[in-house]
């Protein structure tokens, strides 16, 4: 394999690995802050125990999210130096701003939160988790604005053999980025909701700490349901944006080959890339795709055949990832709604089948997250910056395939081990359940 | 204002970011790789790790900021520096990743085999970045074998990982290791109590002698190996910068002997900052010189962003860097008390 393919593989592998940990950080940080707020305002000890228990899982997960993030920043220069040189004038700024505005705040106040229980007042401690979690969310916003620029480049001119910024405000207010931000952020909240529901269900199946875990489950079900509805709404807005600005991605997502008006959406499709058509095409909902793309039943959708083959993304994986992600999203809406309804009933802990389902559902949002990024990044190919720079022209020239093979093997081994250990620790502490005794904190904080 | 003003501002900031990063992560790396020598038992190791616990992550962000600032202000340098030094940076990344998780994972399973594994991982992954940063900066001071034609957009690099391990690179590497070792031992001495603190202070005193020898060797070797002294000879007033570095280094020992460890640590901070300033001042206006041909040097003028980007980034830096410094000072004040054995044993939150 050549340097290009290897670098793509490495970026995908390290990015997807990083993204195992980030969504839970986004969601669980806010939820932990919410629980601690409830504790500080009501003085109810169960909220403190919830803060400590879910906060512990948050921290075990957070550690790997942090250390794998640096890899992403370094790789732009290491593997994609032509890209970095060409677009650094625009793309470097958000990365630097993210570090100074958000990343410092997040990492400094996480430290205060972990080690400050007995050193600062209750309110200052609460403020530290809010600062850290808001910073985490701001960090996601800036990174997604940077990614949005690669999807829908704005505010630049080509000058001095590179893309130069001429409108910073346009980069900051890129609607593609804001929609993507809300969509992604809510997916993190939903994922955290499903993790809390799943772990709670595991304990409820064993009749362990019923009050604690029913309360956790109820809260998480509401969060997850509201978040998944928001995901669907922003997903719809995002599809409109993609149909307008990235017609090749949209056509690949839907496996649409012909350019037509008033296009329907088939529930069952099997693309045949070689023959440029779909071998199976069943259960068509008339005009549906035009409505989804343009909110107009007669809207014209550009098919893949409209574009030369070398400008089309890999159709089958983009299409399948999108379909599967959407399907999992529907499952998440329905199961979290069921969670809200059932968890309000007296007999909730007797619904063993439902509780078992929710334990098994923990991987579902994780899979949906990964598929979402596959759609976003595979669907943009062969471009690294849509319509501006091809991925093949972006790769570093001074590195050899041997170097990248070795680093890819290194990442696979190292990340494989760390991922296994982290999941082992998460499972261990999730199964252990909350600490019974939090008096040491309450006593000390009472004095502070 | 002219673009060159902003290019110079960002050159200064670039130097400051690296200097602050080495000052802050220097003691985390130093305490980390000395933990095996300093701590006599598991509790003492935990005490040492807990002195680093609240701050290591925030300190590492200065590296991410230095990288991000290079990307934003000097994208061509960022692109060529990171791709040319690919293999060294991969080793550095792996080490920093293991270092971070070793703090977090070590105490999560109650087994001595588990803890010993993470202890070894922590020691190696703290030592390696200290050495690699030194080797990398030694090579940057010296120049790396690249041939760049900025008009034709042709960039070539003839170096290799082994090529970086030249004598001057290694001397700089050893200099960084010893700087961070003394720095880390002093940090451990002021952040712990009793016997452990005594031993850490004594170790800092002992390591100071080899540090002095290597520092003198580095300053001497720099003359034939690099062009860093050219700027100082053109404007001798600049010699104040290395002078402050040398005086600070001597004061480290003076205060350590008197037992004024906080002052010794403060001057250790200044030593590191002014060693970096010395190198960076010598580089100006280069960010990375070429060892093959001066026309291939990456300078602040031929590798910078556009005026608009530099202006925006200057505003961001003027607001954010002081803010960050303010809350970091607050955090260091909150955690200013030394970590005692009973703190670690009595606190379920401790590492």
Give a quick rundown of the structure.
Chain A is 72% helix and 8% strand.
Explain the overall architecture.
- The complex is a heterodimer of chains A (448) and B (351).
- Chain A has 448 residues and is mainly alpha-helical.
- Chain A has one domain (23-238, 316-447).
- Chain A has helices at 3-42, 45-79, 81-115, 122-151, 168-172, 175-205, 210-245, 247-254, 288-294, 315-343, 352-360, 363-378, 401-432, 439-447, and strands at 156-159, 162-165, 260-261, 265-272, 277-285, 300-301, 383-385, 389-390.
- In chain A, the strands form four sheets. Chain A has a two-stranded antiparallel sheet.
- In chain A, a hairpin with a 4-residue loop joins strand 4 (265-272) and strand 5.
- The radius of gyration of chain A is 23 Å and the shape is globular.
- Chain B has one domain.
- In chain B, the strands form two sheets. In chain B, strands 1-2 form a two-stranded antiparallel sheet. A two-stranded antiparallel sheet of chain B has the order 3-4.
- The longest helix of chain B has 36 residues, at 3-38.
- The radius of gyration of chain B is 21 Å and the shape is globular.
- The model of chain B has no long low-confidence stretch (mean pLDDT 92).
- The chains are: A mainly alpha (448), B mainly alpha (351).
| Structural classification of chain B | mainly alpha
Q: What integer is the average pLDDT of chain A? A: 91
User: Oligomerization state of this entry?
Assistant: heterodimer
Name the structural class of chain A. Answer: mainly alpha
**pLDDT averaged residue by residue of chain B:** 92
Helices and strands of chain A, in order, run as HHHHEEHHHHEEEHEHHHEEHH
Principal-axes geometry of chain B comes out as: globular
Our count of helices of chain B gives 14
Give the C-alpha Rg of chain A. 23 Å
Low confidence ranges of chain A: none
Number of strands of chain A: 8
Measured by DSSP, the beta-strand proportion of chain A falls in 5-15%
- Widest sheet: strand ordering of chain A: 1-2
> Sheet with the most strands of chain B?
2 strands, antiparallel
Number of domains of chain B: 1
Sheet with the most strands, sense and barrel status of chain A: 2 strands, antiparallel
């Amino acid at each position: 394999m050549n340097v290009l393919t290897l670098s793509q593989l490495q970026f995908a592998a390290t990015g997807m690995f990083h993204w195992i940990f980030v969504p839970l950080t986004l969601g669980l940080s806010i939820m932990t802050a919410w629980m601690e707020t409830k504790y500080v305002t009501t003085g109810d000890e169960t909220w403190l125990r919830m803060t400590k228990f879910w906060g512990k899982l948050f921290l075990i997960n957070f550690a790997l999210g942090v250390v794998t993030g640096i890899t992403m920043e370094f790789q732009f220069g290491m593997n994609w130096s032509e890209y970095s040189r060409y677009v650094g004038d625009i793309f470097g700024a958000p990365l630097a701003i993210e570090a100074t505005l958000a990343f410092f705040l997040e990492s400094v106040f996480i430290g205060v939160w972990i080690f400050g229980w007995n050193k600062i007042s209750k309110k200052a401690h609460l403020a530290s988790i809010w600062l850290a979690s808001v910073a985490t969310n701001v960090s996601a916003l800036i990174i997604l604005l940077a990614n949005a620029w690669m999807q829908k480049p704005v505010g630049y001119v080509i000058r001095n053999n590179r893309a130069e910024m001429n409108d910073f405000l346009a980069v900051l207010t890129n609607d593609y980025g804001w929609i993507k931000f809300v969509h992604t952020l809510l997916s993190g909240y939903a994922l955290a909701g499903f993790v809390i529901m799943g772990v709670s269900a595991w304990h409820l199946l064993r009749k362990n700490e019923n009050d604690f875990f029913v309360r956790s489950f109820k809260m998480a079900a509401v969060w997850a349901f509201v978040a998944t509805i928001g995901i669907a709404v922003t997903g719809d807005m995002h599809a409109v944006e993609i149909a307008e600005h990235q017609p090749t991605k949209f056509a690949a997502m839907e496996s649409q080959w012909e350019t037509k008006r008033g296009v329907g959406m088939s529930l069952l499709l099997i693309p045949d890339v070689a023959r440029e058509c779909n071998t199976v095409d069943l259960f068509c909902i008339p005009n549906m795709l035009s409505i989804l793309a343009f909110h107009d039943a007669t809207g014209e959708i550009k098919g893949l055949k409209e574009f030369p083959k070398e400008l089309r993304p890999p159709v089958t994986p983009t299409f399948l990832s999108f379909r599967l992600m959407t399907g999992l999203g529907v499952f998440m809406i329905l199961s979290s709604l069921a969670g809200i309804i059932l968890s309000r009933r007296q007999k909730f802990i007797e619904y063993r089948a439902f509780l078992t389902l929710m334990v098994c559902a923990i991987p579902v949002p994780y899979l949906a997250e990964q598929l979402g990024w596959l759609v976003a990044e595979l669907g943009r190919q062969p471009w690294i910056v849509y319509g501006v720079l091809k991925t093949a022209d972006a790769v570093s020239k001074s590195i050899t395939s041997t170097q990248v093979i070795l680093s890819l093997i290194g990442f696979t081994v190292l990340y494989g081990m760390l991922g296994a250990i982290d999941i082992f620790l998460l499972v261990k502490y999730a199964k252990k359940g909350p600490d019974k005794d939090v008096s040491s904190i309450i006593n000390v904080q009472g004095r502070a | 204002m002219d673009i060159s003003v902003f290019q110079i501002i960002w050159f200064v900031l670039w130097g400051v970011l690296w200097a602050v990063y080495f000052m802050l992560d220097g003691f985390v790396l130093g305490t980390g790789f000395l933990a095996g020598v300093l701590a006599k038992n598991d509790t003492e190791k935990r005490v040492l790790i807990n002195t680093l616990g609240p701050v290591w992550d925030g300190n590492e962000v200065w590296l991410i900021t230095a990288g991000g600032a290079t990307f934003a202000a000097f994208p061509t340098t960022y692109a060529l520096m990171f791709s040319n030094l690919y293999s060294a940076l991969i080793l550095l990344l792996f080490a920093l990743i293991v270092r971070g998780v070793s703090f977090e994972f070590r105490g999560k399973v109650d087994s001595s085999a588990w803890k010993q594994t993470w202890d070894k991982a922590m020691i190696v992954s703290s030592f390696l970045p200290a050495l690699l940063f030194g080797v990398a900066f030694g090579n940057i001071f010296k120049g790396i074998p690249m041939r760049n034609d900025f008009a034709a957009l042709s960039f070539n690099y003839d170096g290799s990982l082994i090529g970086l391990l030249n004598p001057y690179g290694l001397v700089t590497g050893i200099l960084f290791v010893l700087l961070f070792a003394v720095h880390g031992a002093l940090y451990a001495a002021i952040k712990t109590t009793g016997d452990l603190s005594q031993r850490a202070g004594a170790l800092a005193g002992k390591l100071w002698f080899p540090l002095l020898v290597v520092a003198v060797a580095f300053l001497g070797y720099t003359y034939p190996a690099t062009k860093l002294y050219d700027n100082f000879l053109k404007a001798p007033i600049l010699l104040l910068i290395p002078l402050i570095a040398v005086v600070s280094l001597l004061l480290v020992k003076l205060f350590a002997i008197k037992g004024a460890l906080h002052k010794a640590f403060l001057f250790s901070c200044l030593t590191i900052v002014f060693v970096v300033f010395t190198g960076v001042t010598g580089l100006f206006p280069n960010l990375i010189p070429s060892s093959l041909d001066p026309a291939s040097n990456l300078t602040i003028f031929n590798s910078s962003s556009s005026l608009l980007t530099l202006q925006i980034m200057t505003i961001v830096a003027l607001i954010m860097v002081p803010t960050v410094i303010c809350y970091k000072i607050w955090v260091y004040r909150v955690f200013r008390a030394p970590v005692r054995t009973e703190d670690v044993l009595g606190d379920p939150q401790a590492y």
